[in-house]
Write a structure and sequence with these properties.
- The chain is of the alpha/beta class.
- The chain folds into two domains: about 290 residues, Carbon-nitrogen hydrolase (Nitrilase/N-carbamoyl-D-aminoacid amidohydrolase); about 35 residues, no CATH class.
- It has nine helices and 15 strands.
- The strands form four sheets. A six-stranded mixed β-sheet has the order 5-4-3-2-1-15. The protein has a five-stranded mixed β-sheet with strand order 8-9-12-13-14, with helices on one face.
- α1 runs parallel beside α3 and α8 packs across α9.
- The longest helix is centred in the first third of the chain and has 17 residues.
- The relative contact order is 0.14.
- It holds the Pfam family CN_hydrolase.
- Belongs to the carbon-nitrogen hydrolase superfamily. Nitrilase family.
- GO terms for molecular function: catalytic activity.
- This is Nitrilase.
Length: about 350
C-alpha cells in the first residue's frame, strides 16, 4: 500500500569539502535529524559527497591535483561507507537520495560520474542514476551516464524518479520518467544563482529576489505541473570558509542553497532557502496529485501517443559486445516462438523449453 500522506525533506547541508570520512559522519548526523522529525524521504544536493567541483576551471596542473583528491574522496557502489550510511538510514527509517561523485567500479577505471544513490528505509542501495550529460565545464570532471540508469522505482510513498541539474531542462528524459509513472521527483542542483542575460553569465544568489532570473525556479515549478510530480529540489549550500578548505580562488561559486519543495500543481510549499544550512520539510498529500491530474493528466487523458512517442534505451555501456560480455540473448515473443515452431515442425513447448534453457544457463 502506498501512503496517502508523506513528509519530504531537502537536506541543504554543506559537506566537509573533499573529506570523505568527515562528510560521511556529517551525512549520518543529518539523516539522524531527519529521522527524529519523522521524515519519509530526504534528498541531499548534487554531488554532496564530497562536494561540487566549483574549481572546475582551474589551471591544468591545479585541476589534476584536485581531481586526484576528488577521486580519493568519492564513493563507489562497492564502498564500505555505504554500509555505514545504510545503518544510519535503517535507524532513521526514511528513504534517502544522496547526490555523490561516484567512482566507477569497473576494473581499471578511475572515471567519476555525477550520480544519485537511492536507499530504501532499510538502508539498502536500490538504484543509482548517473547524469546523462555533464554541463559545460563539468565535462572535464565526469563521464557521461549510462542510459540504463534513467529509471524509476517503487517505494511505500510512491514511484520515485529523479534528475540532476540541467537534466531537469531536458524535454525527452522528463517525458520518459513521466511515462514510467514517476510520482516523486528528487531534483538536485549545485546552488542557486542570478542569471545575467544567458546561462553562461550567472552569479551566486544573495537573496530570494534571484527567483526573477534563475532558470531553476520556473523549471522546478513547471516540472511539478507538467508531470504532476511531488518535486524535492535540493540545492547545494557551502560557506566561503568551507570552500576555502580546497582553494582560495574558486572560480565558479554558486553554492547559495535554493532548495524547494513543490506540489504537483507547481505550488512551492517550502523555500527557496537561501544562504543557510537547513533541513527544509513539507507535508504532501496524494490528493494534491489527484486534483491536478483530474484537470491535466500528462500520461492519461491529456496524451496523444499516436502523435508523439518516445524510444527509450536501457543499455548499459560496456567494453564488450555479444557473447564476450556474457550478455543473455533477448527473449523471443510468443509470436516468434510460434513461427520458429511452425518453420521447424516442432511442438511449441519444445521451443519454449529451449529458450528457457538458454536464459538459465
Amino acid at each position: 500500500m502506498v501512503a496517502e500522506q508523506f513528509t519530504a525533506a531537502a537536506a541543504q547541508v554543506e559537506p566537509v569539502y573533499h573529506d570523505k570520512e568527515a562528510t560521511l559522519d556529517k551525512t549520518c548526523r543529518w539523516i539522524e535529524t531527519a529521522g527524529t522529525q519523522d521524515v519519509d524521504v530526504v534528498v541531499f544536493p548534487e554531488t554532496f559527497f564530497p562536494g561540487y567541483p566549483y574549481w572546475r576551471g582551474s589551471s591544468i596542473a591545479r585541476w589534476t591535483d584536485l581531481m586526484v583528491e576528488l577521486q580519493k574522496n568519492s564513493l563507489s557502489v562497492e564502498d564500505d561507507a555505504l554500509e555505514v550510511l545504510g545503518d544510519a538510514i535503517d535507524e532513521a527509517n526514511c528513504h534517502v537520495v544522496l547526490g555523490t561523485n561516484e567512482r566507477s567500479e569497473r576494473p581499471g577505471s578511475e572515471t567519476l560520474y555525477n550520480s544519485l544513490f537511492y536507499f530504501d528505509r532499510s538502508g539498502e542501495l536500490v538504484r543509482r542514476h548517473r547524469k546523462l550529460m555533464p554541463t559545460h565545464g563539468e565535462r572535464t570532471i565526469w563521464g557521461r551516464g549510462d542510459p540504463s540508469t534513467l529509471d524509476t522505482h517503487d517505494t511505500d510513498i510512491g514511484r520515485m524518479g529523479g534528475l540532476i541539474c540541467y537534466e531537469n531542462h531536458m524535454t525527452l528524459p522528463k517525458g520518459a520518467l513521466a511515462a514510467m509513472g514517476e510520482e516523486i521527483h528528487p531534483a538536485v542542483w549545485p546552488g542557486f544563482w542570478e542569471q545575467h542575460g544567458h546561462p553562461g553569465d550567472k552569479s551566486k544568489a544573495t537573496d530570494r529576489s534571484a527567483i526573477e532570473t534563475c532558470d531553476q525556479y520556473p523549471a522546478m515549478r513547471e516540472y511539478a505541473f507538467e508531470t504532476q510530480s511531488f518535486v524535492i529540489s535540493s540545492s547545494a549550500y557551502m560557506s566561503d570558509e568551507m570552500l576555502g578548505r580546497v582553494m582560495d580562488d574558486v572560480d565558479f561559486n554558486i553554492a547559495a542553497g535554493g532548495s524547494m519543495l513543490i506540489n504537483p500543481a507547481g505550488i512551492v510549499k517550502a523555500g527557496p532557502a537561501i544562504g543557510e544550512e537547513t533541513l527544509l520539510t513539507a507535508e504532501f498529500d496524494r490528493d494534491e496529485r489527484r486534483a491536478t491530474k483530474a484537470y491535466f493528466d500528462s500520461v492519461g487523458h491529456y496524451t496523444r501517443w499516436d502523435a508523439v512517442n518516445l524510444n527509450v534505451r536501457d543499455t548499459e555501456l560496456a567494453p564488450f559486445e555479444g557473447e564476450q560480455a556474457g550478455e543473455t540473448p533477448p527473449t523471443p515473443s510468443p509470436a516468434t516462438i510460434e513461427e520458429i515452431a511452425t518453420e521447424h515442425d516442432l511442438p511449441i513447448d519444445t521451443v519454449e523449453s529451449i529458450v528457457d534453457s538458454l536464459h538459465s544457463s
